[in-house]
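Q: For a teaching session next week I want to show students how multiple molecules come together into a single three-dimensional assembly. I've collected the sequence lines for a complex. Could you give me the predicted structure tokens for the whole thing so I can convert them for display?
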Amino acid sequence: MKLLFGLSADSDSLDALHRTVDRARSVGDDLTVAILKGPDVDGSLADMERRVSEAIGDVSDVDLRTVEGHPGSRLVEIAEAEGFDRIVLGGGEQSPMGKIRIGSIAEFVLLNSHVSVTLLR
Amino acid sequence: MTERRYPEVAAGPFPEPPIDWTDEAGRTIEIRVCQGDRDGLVSMYEDFDPSERAQGIPPVQESAIREWLDHLLCEDCFNVVASHEDRIVGHATLVGDDAGAYELAIFVHQDFQDAGTGTKLLEALLGHAAAAGVKRVWLTVERWNKPATYLYQKVGFESTGAEDFEREMSIRLTGK
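A: Of course. Below is the structure for the complete assembly, covering every listed component.
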């Protein structure tokens, strides 16, 4: 299966990335990691690229890319144009109360993608 | 993330618990600050209609309910319960965020809904919190949940304009 994992450049957790990389390696999926930087995102692409490289160790089996522009629409565009089977996103954020939150990237992707979407909890 | 908007004018005053009242179905309800009601709350949430869960809370499994309640019944949190004949039938709670404000949630057991208890419980929680100096409270509500949105508006919450999957609303309290 061809997976596209989307990671916002200002994300403070790499937990979803770790789980996706581990799973992709164990079942032999073809994984692309897109680091997304929208116009109003503070995080630097270079910083996140370095964190991701450190986090996943050997990156030779992962297609690591940086993507600028509207994060949700760029992700959907890449998934559809390049024939990905699934988009994977972290989706486990909670409010102080413990309510599940869906971020703006996940909301856009869910409502616009013709490709199946997995949100990791 | 932009700053959350709060109404300029403070709402209230709100009554402080304990409050005794008779609901619209004629049942006597005591509204009080939560103290040692953990097991009663677990019982209410175990029997809570799963279709009335909001954004993943309350959790379904007993162990998850207990873990969640541990988080809510913290020292700096505010919790008010409604009880009928020693049974907890409603719970309203405030949990602090990282900006000095509080997130609110309220649950009324399905057997005791539509009888005015939600409004009383909400007002009592806001009265309890305002007396302790809380000034800013916010919540999220599903966009399709018109009855809840109406209840929040009635006590003084206003939409902040932030809408993802949920509508966000906020209120300013008089505080001390």
